[in-house]
Automatic annotation (TrEMBL):
The keyword Lipid biosynthesis does not apply. InterPro entries: Rhodanese-like_dom, Rhodanese-like_dom_sf, TrhO, TRHO_N. The lineage of its organism: Bacteria, Pseudomonadati, Pseudomonadota, Alphaproteobacteria, Sphingomonadales. It comes from the Bacteria. Residues 291-325 are annotated as: Disordered. CDD domains: RHOD_YceA. The keyword Hydrolase does not apply. Residues 132-230 form the Rhodanese domain. SUPFAM superfamilies: Rhodanese/Cell cycle control phosphatase. PANTHER family: RHODANESE-LIKE DOMAIN-CONTAINING PROTEIN 7-RELATED (PTHR43268:SF3), THIOSULFATE SULFURTRANSFERASE/RHODANESE-LIKE DOMAIN-CONTAINING PROTEIN 2 (PTHR43268). Residues 291-305 have a biased composition (Basic and acidic residues). This is tRNA uridine(34) hydroxylase. It catalyses: uridine(34) in tRNA + AH2 + O2 = 5-hydroxyuridine(34) in tRNA + A + H2O.
């Protein structure tokens, strides 16, 4: 698999979003092999390692990402790892992290095992027909700030602040959603597919049999379904400094607020309540003067680093952590 090269001259960085549920008997050993490799290849981003597998998004040159994937595919159960490649004009991450975790995507349901039982995979080309069927209920498994940027037409927004909230939301809403006379099938989707591995396994453990999920997530759909045939509305939030992407995985129009970490639309960026790096309409007036001064200094340092062509090491993106996915 190669990184898309259509716009390689303008966007020389290859971004790899990947995950694999597998069994790692010694996650620390996997981490020890990956961390120095990423550093030697100049790759930035975050990989999460747990007994249940690997998850993350990283970026670098085409050759560096190719070398990393060669190594990852030698890990137990990772020969066929799910990888989504896209391009960016600059490195969308500032740091390199390989972190040990209890879960590669945090749902807080330790008995759920996607390797044992998950929903039916649906390819992007078949997704429109499925979600347009009257006997299908469509659920967005992402967080509220992601859904606000874009979603599939007619999908239900659970309005959850984190993926940990999804099981409680479903249990409380199950009768309303799937009671007598309601749609018999459930279709779910997320950014890259990993949350749906767990959410469909969770629904099946709850006794829901007809469960489907979008293979490769929204990113796979936006890459393979033409815009004129798409049922996607808006942009797709991603967990790096691109903030959002559109069809063909082109960088979108949103910024991210350093203060509250929420995506900021072009309209909101034009608001007098928006100050780059300091505040946005969603959080204006909620921070102390000391916090605002700290944010402003951080933005000044980032701007200075950008003008020098260097990286500001203190720059952060909460949503850059693939745990949020």
């Amino acid at each position: 698999m190669e990184c898309p090269s259509v716009t390689e001259a303008e966007m020389p960085i290859c971004v790899a979003a990947l995950y694999q549920f597998t069994r790692f008997d010694d996650p620390a050993q996997v981490q020890a092999g990956l961390e120095p490799l990423l550093l030697s290849l100049g790759i930035k981003g975050t990989l999460l390692i747990a007994r249940e597998g690997i998850n993350g998004t990283v970026a670098g040159t085409d050759d560096a990402i190719a070398a990393l994937l060669v190594h990852i595919r030698t890990l137990p159960g990772c020969a066929g790892i799910d990888v989504k490649l896209s391009r960016a004009p600059d490195l969308p991450f500032h740091r390199t992290k390989v972190k040990l975790k209890r879960e590669i995507v945090t749902m807080g349901q330790p008995d759920i095992d996607p390797l044992a039982d998950v929903g039916h995979y649906v390819m992007p080309e078949d997704w429109n027909a499925l979600i347009s069927s009257p006997d299908v209920i469509v659920i967005d498994t992402r967080n509220d700030y992601e859904v606000a940027v874009g979603q599939f037409h007619g999908a239900i927004d659970p309005k959850t602040a984190s993926f940990r909230d999804f099981p409680g939301w479903f249990r409380s809403e199950r009768e309303r959603l799937l009671g007598e006379g309601k749609p018999a099938r459930v279709a779910m989707y997320c950014t890259g597919g990993i949350r749906c591995e767990k959410s469909t396994a969770f629904l099946k453990a709850e006794g829901v049999e007809d469960v489907y999920h979008l293979k490769g997530g929204i990113l796979n759909y936006l890459e393979h379904v033409p815009a004129d045939q798409s049922l996607w509305e808006g942009e797709c939030f991603v967990f790096d400094q691109r903030v959002t992407v559109t069809h063909d995985l082109e960088p979108g129009s949103y910024a991210v607020c350093h203060a509250c970490r929420l995506p900021v639309s072009q309209e909101e960026q034009a608001s007098p309540l928006y100050e780059a790096g300091v505040s946005c309409p969603a959080c204006h007036g909620t921070k102390t003067e000391a916090q605002r001064a700290s944010y402003a200094e951080r933005q000044r340092q980032e701007d200075l680093a950008l003008s020098r062509g260097t990286t500001h090491v203190g720059a952060t993106r909460k949503q850059g952590d693939p745990e949020a996915e």
